[in-house]
Amino acid sequence: MRFLKLFKWYELVYFGICCAILISLSIIFHSNWIIIINALLGLLTSFLLSKAIVWGNIVGIIQLFFYIYLSAQNAYYGEVISCAITSLPIYIATFITWFKNKNEGQVKINNKYNYKEFFIAIAIMFALSFGLYYMLRAFNTADLIISTVSLCLACFKGYLQVRRSELNFVVSLLNRIITLVLWLNFVLHGSLSYIPTVATYAIYFTLDVFGLIVWLKLKNKQQSEKSSEVPFEINAEQQKEKNQQTQEEKGE
Description:
Structural class: mainly alpha
Helix content: over 70%
Number of domains: 1
Strand content: under 5%
Strand order of the largest sheet: 1-2
Low-confidence stretches: none
Mean pLDDT: 81
Number of helices: 8
Distance between the termini: 57 Å
Largest sheet: 2 strands, antiparallel
Radius of gyration: 23 Å
Shape: globular
C-alpha cells in the first residue's frame, strides 16, 4: 500500500489502458509471447522510471534480455550491442546511484549541474560515434546510420540517468523517435506482428514526456523541502547557543 501511494489514480488507469492496448494488438496481429512480454516489461520499466522509482531499473534489466533476443532475430546488432555493453551496465550503475540517493522509494533528483562535464560527455559521444559506426558495419547491421545514432543517444541518456538528471528524458525522446523509425520500417516491410512493438515505443514517447514533467515537479518539491529545513536548522543552532549563554549567566 505504501508503494501504491507513489502513484495518482489516473496514472494507474493510464498504465492499465496502455497494457490493455498492447495485449489487444498482440492478439490481433498474432505476436509471439516474447514480443508481448518485452512490450509489457518495457512499459512497466518506463512507467516506474518516469515516477523516479528506484526499482524500475531492476525491471529494465529483465526486459533487456527479451529485447536483445528480438533485436538479434532481425539483424539489429546495433541494438544488441547497445543493450549488452551500454544499457545493462547503465541500469546497474543507475540502480546503485539511485539506491544511495533515494527518499521513500523515489530518487533524489540532482540539482547541481556541472555543464563543463555535460559538454565533455557530448564531445566523447561524438568521438565514439565514428568507432561505433565501423563496429556496427562489421556486424552487417541493418539501418546502419540510424543504429549508430541510436546507440550514441542511448549512451548519453544513460549518463544523464546515472547523474539523476531530468534531462535524460529529453535525450530519451530523441532516441524514441529513432527507435520508432527502426521498428516501423520493419512493419512496413510486411512483419505486422511487430505492430505491438511500434505501439510500445509510441507509448514510451508519451511516458518520457510524462516523466519529464514529473521529475521537474519532484525536483521543485525536493528543493522546497530542503530549503524549509535550513531555517529550522538555524533556529535550532541559535536556541542551542541561547541555552548555553543562559547557563553561563546562571553560573556567574
